[in-house]
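Hello again,

I reread your note about wanting to compare the complex against the isolated chains. To keep things tidy I'm splitting this into two emails, and this first one only covers the full assembly. Below are the input lines as submitted, including protein chains and any nucleic acid or small-molecule components. They are followed by the predicted structure of everything together. The single-chain runs will come separately.
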Amino acid sequence: MQRSMAYERHLNLEATELRLGLPGSDEAPEKTSAIPSVRSNKRASPEISEESRSKGSSSLSSDVENCEGETAPPAKEQIVGWPPIRSYRKNCLQPRKNDRVDGAGMYVKVSVDGAPYLRKIDLKVYKSYPELLEALEDMFKLTIGEYSEKEGYNGSDFAPTYEDKDGDWMLVGDVPWDMFISTCKRLRIMRGSSEARGFGC
Amino acid sequence: MSEDDDRSPSPNSITDDSSQTRTYTTGSGPGPGPGSSSVLEYLAPCPDQVLENVLENVLWFLTSRKDRNAASLVCRSWYRVEALTRSDLFIGNCYAVSPKRATSRFTRIRSVTLKGRPRFADFNLMPPNWGAHLAPWVSAMALTYPWLEKVHLKRMSVTDDDLALLAESFSGFKELVLVCCDGFGTSGLAIVASRCRQLKVLDLIESEVSDDDVDWISYFPDTGTCLESLIFDCVECPIDFDALERLVANSPSLKKLRLNRHVSMGQLHRLMVQAPRLTHLGTGSFSPSEDVAQEHLKPIISNCHKLQIFWVLDSICDEGLQAVAATCKELRELRVFPFEAREDIEGPVSEVGLQAVSEGCRKLQSILYFCQRMTNAAVVAMSKNCPDLVVFRLCIMGRHRPDHVTGEPMDEGFGAIVMNCKKLTRLAVSGLLTDRAFAYIGKYGKIVRTLSVAFAGDSDMGLKYVLEGCPRLQKLEIRDSPFGDAALLSGLHHYYNMRFLWMSACNLSNQGCQQIAQALPRLVVEVIKHEDNLDMDENVDTLYMYRSLEGPRDDVPRFVSIL
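Full-complex prediction:
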């Protein structure tokens, strides 16, 4: 008996208690995400799967008794994908956020010389230059080559450049990453060695 | 056999339109397998040949997919001829068959429908980049279907490059419909607009379209278009209204136009005045600042006696639905969406609205109803008043909510639906449900094909009832319900008859899923881990399994393991 009680304490029964609210719904709401408008797989609360597991394995009748006669459930946090409304439809109804500028993302246009269309990427997604360059190479199916301070980008025809806050065009990689992130307004992948090399000198 | 037997076919002979010059080996003897016309010979028409020609001319008229599938099973000859006369290719799961296999069998396709991701992916239950890429399909079709006219896609990942290839490869391309797709942007649309000179239909429905800062509307040719339908309410980017006006003026055949919310009411009015031939005009949604209040809606509704399809927000309230019930006697399809998709609020529609609709709209065939509270009585009433129901989807948004008057589970209501609605093929359940509800479904839901379950059931028995009782079941999606391995195993006899099974946040283990995979080699069993939980523990977050001729796909992302 002693051991089982200690085990129960260890189990943190409150977290798996059978009730209509989410386990942990008493806790601060920062655990959950709001109605996701961007396709994100971050679960609002992993406890929901525990709840259904514990419901399945424990006694059924007590579960039903808990549910019947229950008055309005406590304020619930949002669960991923519930109610089943597509985010497109939800977005129509929420006031439109300007997602270009706020913390949700940092989108900049990327153009490639010779390519018929622009792309937009979210700089916030990348943590370093190598990551960014790899993504650009992937997106546009080209090779950018190795960066060197003196010579710019060796080994290919392409050089990534960006326009900063002052309107100047710089070679990607010249400034520390954090500074780059905060000053980059748009990207242009230039083609043609001499023009691109001109940045390196 | 003549000495011409071994002559290999020229590529043109397979896709040659005129049946007189095409010949086949007869079905007897050690010939090539069904579907392959690898040995062609010129013979004077013999009785078998005549029969095949006749068959071909007859089979052209067969349009129903089911009939064609049946016809193709009669014998090799019918299989071959059916393959040659099929013009609409429907692939319900893009991973069930490879592009190569499909394009080898059916060589004269004019229209392709492809479906990719499972439906629950729309609700963020699947990590992005799971798959369903159009690329391999469009590459294969570019080679084999130069006369392709229509492409309909649902839940596929489409890139701008794919759209470019499509626009370049099919000179007679007429119709592009993208439903719940993503991966492309306005640049891709621009390419389609400018290259597809025969384009009649460009319908973008609930798709995610990235803003590449391209004024794609202006890429339609100035000289005039064949457009009959243009739907882009889901494209979230602003458009140049002048370009749109010019396009409408240049498109004498345009009947359907659905714009996005960047077009104001005033601009909409201008278009209406300039293009009176339009039969469908709208924005696809209301922006909050211009919403139509309930009191404005009621007088409009009272005049819509012929309304058959009605999609509305729940801000219409129960009273609005009562007005619908009083007036819209011809209503076939009703969808009531929640203005606020949350669980813990009062809610403007309830069993009152449902009951009213059931009493007034007796011809109802399809209903999707989001609400906060419901009673068994109203659902039972609908089951009795609307015998023509084919689709019944009720979403009580509060999870595990019982009948709010009696406190009972919603078992009896849904039970009545499956019992009384003899034509029901699609069902979505919600609210507090015990295994009993599933017993009803298994007992009475004999023609149910699609079933959607969330936060329901008590034990494995629930799922067992359904798997053992519903022989027509093809698509089953379940989330957050206490069904485990034993229940999963009870469906072994049926999984090859299904398009797919989805189970997320249930009680499945890797072991149970392994057993299925081993027992059914033609089933692809995907275990999807959520990205923040990539360790291989015993519990299965999400199971998605489907029959396939191809085995494990080769574009599996790292969060998916195929057992």
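For quick reference: Residues 277 and 442 of chain B are 49 Å apart (CA to CA).

B.
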